[in-house]
Amino acid sequence: MTEDNFEEFLKKAAQSYNAPPARTPREDMWSAIQAQRAAGPRVVYGGGSGTRESSGRRFGSKIWLGAAAAAVLFLATGVGIGRWTASSNTQGSVAVANPSKTGSNPAPTTEPSGTVPDGSVVGSTPGQNAGGGVEALTPRGVARSGGGQRTGLTGGSGTRVAAGDAAPNPTPASAYQLTTVRHLSEAEALLTSFRTRSTTDQQMDAQLGTWARSLLSNTRLLLDSPVANDPQRRPLLEDLELVLVQIVQLSPGSTPQDREMIEKTLRQDHVMTRLRTAIPAGSQRGS
Amino acid sequence: MGLLAYESRSSVNDIELITRVVAGDAAAERELYETYVDRIYRLTFRLAGDDELARDFTQATFIRAFEKIGSFRGESSLSTWLHSIGVSVSLNGLRKTKRLRTREAPMEEGLTVGAMPVEAEPDLKERLARAIDSLSDKYRTVFVMHDVEGYTHDEISGTLSIPVGTSKSHLFQARSKLRVALADFAPEWAS
Question: B128 at the A interface (CB within 8 A)?
Answer without folding.
Answer: yes
